[in-house]
Specification:
With 108 residues, this protein is an alpha+beta fold. Helix content is 25%, strand content 31%. A five-stranded mixed beta sheet has the order 1-4-5-2-3, covered by helices on one side.
């Protein structure tokens, strides 16, 4: 294999690996206590979070503070990469905009 071909293969592999990584962060806050992931609860809200530069910079508010009800004593937050997120990212990843979803549950 020629050196030129090896460089092209390396560049393609690098682009593929980098396109599946990200720095997505979500700030979980509010006055409620966090419950463990095995506890059941009722769904309060599902929110989609948007990021640019593959998750480095949030485009929308990435905090749960405004979505947790004040009356909730305990909550559980699940982050998910849904089918809709995948479909959206198919078209927006080429401009480095990505999305993922989070669901907030109130635990009794």
């Amino acid at each position: 294999m020629s050196a030129y071909r090896k460089i092209i293969m390396f560049c393609l592999l690098f682009v593929l690996v980098v396109s599946f990584t990200g720095c997505y962060t979500i700030k979980v806050g509010g006055k409620a206590q966090l419950a463990s992931s095995d506890q059941e609860g009722t769904l309060v809200v599902e929110k989609r979070y948007w990021y640019i530069l593959f998750g480095l910079i949030p485009l929308s508010d990435n905090s749960t503070d405004n979505h947790i009800p004040p009356s909730a004593a305990r909550v559980r937050v699940e982050t998910k990469y849904t089918v809709l997120d995948f479909l959206i990212n198919l078209f927006t990843t080429w401009v480095t905009i990505v999305t993922f979803s989070a669901e907030i549950y109130e635990v009794k």
